[in-house]
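Below is a complete specimen:
___
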Amino acid sequence: MAKISASVYTSHVPAIGAALDLGKTHEPYWQPLFKGYDFSKQWLKDNKPDVIFLVYNDHATAFSLEMIPTFAIGTAASFTPADEGWGPRPVPQVIGHPELASHIAQSVIQQDFDLTIVNKMDVDHGLTVPLSLMCGQPQAWPCPVIPFAVNVVQYPVPSGRRCFELGKAIRKAVESFDKDLNVQIWGTGGMSHQLQGARAGLINKDFDNAFLDRLIANPDDLANMPHIDYVREAGSEGIELVMWLIARGAMADVAGGKPPKVAHRFYHVPASNTAVGHLILEN
């Protein structure tokens, strides 16, 4: 059967993609951030998966305010980098895994989670920046990627508990696939940041690091955090962190297995006006 071998968590700040694309990674402002991913790039080479299941949020690119699914799974054979207003990022096309994606959709829907099936969509920086941080600038991404978009843009958004339980359902779906595949699940977005209003530029280091502690050691309790705490403590865009709970809910310890190994942990501020968090957990 297929298995989830690890989970990866990272911010997906659009300015990070621009810094990479424009050759600014060695500038004093950006160098400390990219150095924090040196370990991760080597780790991914050493632990190359067959498929990455990548949880992210679309930023009004594939979905407009006219139609926003709460959970959407990409089942296409490929996905094109989106033009977010300044041209598509110069990154490889994303190759999907229709067979596994369709199986996960079938299994998760039968576990009473409503998913939107997406057979064609462009993918924006929410998905491509994490791939760039973990892979650098390759000619092709190292493996197929299944995009899984979560609405954290327009309220109402899913609760942390709903996301955590969805992660459990995804793990069951992966493990019921009858081919021997090594799957990684990535949760992206966050950490603390607010892009507008009187608190624009908000960064809360204490909250961010406490979130990482709880995500590692007690995710079931963390899943009970209400939306208002994310907004109050981490800013209006801090709600993206519920997507990390999907990846965490798919780990083996949640189903009675051993606690995960912390392979890498990194935190840095600022990147643009955002706190960047990063974590790798191995089953």
In short: The chain has a mean pLDDT of 97. The beta strands are 3-10, 51-56, 71-74, 78-79, 94-95, 116-118, 145-150, 182-188, 261-271, 274-282. The domain at 3-271 is CATH 3.40.830.10 (Protocatechuate 4,5-dioxygenase; Chain B).
